[in-house]
Amino acid sequence: MRGSKAAVVLAAAGMLVLPVPAEAGTAAGAATAVKATEAVLAPASVAKRLFRAWLGHDRSAAAAVATPAAVKTLFAYAYRAPDRFDGCTGTTCRFVHTSVRVPGALNGIRMIVSGDTVAKVYESRHLTTADKAAKYLYGAWKAGDRNRGLEIASTGAVKTLFRVKFGGVGYIFQGCNPENGGKSCAYSYEGGAMFMHTRGSKARGYEVRSISYIAD
């Protein structure tokens, strides 16, 4: 009889489940949630994964962490790979050149990260004529995309151009003409003209260094 009672007591004891303190459970859950969020929202990790895939010429690995458009842009980069990771500001991550001069103020590759994916890639462009550089910058302004402008123009030129929002006021491209040190490409409009002053060569690529205006 005593043996039976002991067995019942032991069985009951085995069924007891000690409660986890509410605060401990909440803290553990919060820590897990934070880690999961960091794993998804770590822009630097995502950007570096894409960069490594590009260095390894691995399009499949690149496609796993970037949109098709971002992969296409990155794999068309005209220059050798940037040699320094320059960190991230929010969801924008940068890889820059320290030993080679490229056109535009972007100076390498800029990735825009969304969650665990590189949504868009901006990169220094190699445009072989002055008019291509001018038209590219004009297109960036029309689209309201400063990063795109920095792919082919100086910070000063982009700042000057983007001071005014594109208004579709009948700009007409008038071509490019030689000037001291480079070529000046003009857009005329009612009441005046805008001049994009470019520098470079077919081999090095052209960039827009500055912008000026005249009024009729």
Task: Give the quaternary arrangement of the chains.
Answer: single chain
Are there runs of 5+ residues with pLDDT below 50, and where? 1-39
Over the alpha carbons, how many angstroms does the gyration radius reach? Answer: 28 Å
Class from helix and strand fractions: alpha+beta
**Strands of the largest sheet, in order across it?**
1-2-3-4
What is the helix content? 25-40%
Describe the main β-sheet briefly: 4 strands, antiparallel
Give the CA-based shape: elongated
Number of helices: 8
Mean pLDDT over the full residue set: 86
What is the straight-line distance between the termini?
A: 114 Å
Number of beta strands: 8
Briefly say what this structure is.
With 216 residues, this protein is of the alpha+beta class. 39% of the residues lie in helices and 29% in strands. The strands form 2 sheets. Strands 1-2-3-4 form a 4-stranded antiparallel β-sheet. Strands 5-6-7-8 form a 4-stranded antiparallel β-sheet.
